[in-house]
Amino acid sequence: MTARADFIAGNTRLRARLPALLGPVDYDQLAGVSREAAAERLAASTYRPYLNRDQVGDRRLLEAVGRRLRDLLRGVRGLYAGTAGTAVGVLLARHDLLDTLALLRGARTGQPAAVRLAAVMGVGALDQRTAADIAAAPDGASAVLRLAAHRLPDPLTARALPAAWEHYELNGDPDDFETTVAAAAIDGWTDRLEWVGRAARPILELIQAECDRANLLAVLRDPALETPRLLPTGLVSVAALLAARQGDPQPAVAARPGWRQPLEQHLRDEDLAALEWDLDVAVWRQGVRGVRRGDPLGADIPVGYVLAAECEARTVRLLLAGIAPTYDVRDLLVR
């Protein structure tokens, strides 16, 4: 029998860190001001340790946002032990997967090692030191071998990498390759979360929501009107995805009611970028609310905190770029 996951101690300590996240006043002070004013106001906030007043260029500001997000996320892992730690490890493994795909993409396309490494968050099992070794691989095949040798992003996915790469060399389809790698990782996450049990359900629901979102966008983007390689489905079946592409959103909306407005809007304007953003916001809102309203004995707290930190970084980047978000950022705040 699996030992009961104990989230209580970690949740208590994580909730104590919520005041360090930006709030409504902070966002208001960043909106509609110059870059220099934004840098000055960030320096007066919890971003102070990440900013050098003598270096406030666009790149420096964005790097500061990235460093803060890394610190916030890295601080989550050590708060949970045992089966709760296993579940939270999956939450951060979302970044391990993105890091792995970024490293493989960089190796496959011949990007400089420094560019590959700059795309790595390094907040989970894949740390910066190991990422540097993989980023130095001369080509995609070598990067695959190095990841497999390090058993990254996790042992199950590492075992699937060589076959996925061999298939890629035959068909030359990078989207199929990355989806194959991602699907292997997600299958492993699902097994781990189901092993942990009910307390880990919020993490599984997040993974499923992100899969459904990615699958919908993949189907809508497919120019051949075929069924592309998809991630493991969550609540939205392949039939529902194909119906949405044919202009019938009802099967998808029945599975995910929060998709109604974004899908109906997409039917009117066919703006995939707007649809992608709106679907993201629906996932973020649901997850962030769990910090205050979710089960204090389960994974609602780490899910909400991690999503809130990720939303903060995205929103600050938008405000620094002078792009007004298309939604009220207060809907994503932990307050």
Automatic annotation (TrEMBL):
Is the keyword Acyltransferase in the record?
no
Q: Which domain of life is it from?
A: Bacteria
Q: Which InterPro entries match?
A: ATPase_csu/dsu_sf (IPR036079), ATPase_V0-cplx_csu/dsu (IPR002843), V-type_ATPase_csu/dsu (IPR035067), V-type_ATPase_csu/dsu_dom_3 (IPR044911)
* Keyword line: Ion transport, Transport
Family the UniProt entry places it in? Belongs to the V-ATPase V0D/AC39 subunit family.
Task: Identify this protein by name.
Answer: Vacuolar-type H+-ATPase subunit C/Vma6
- Its source organism is Kribbella orskensis
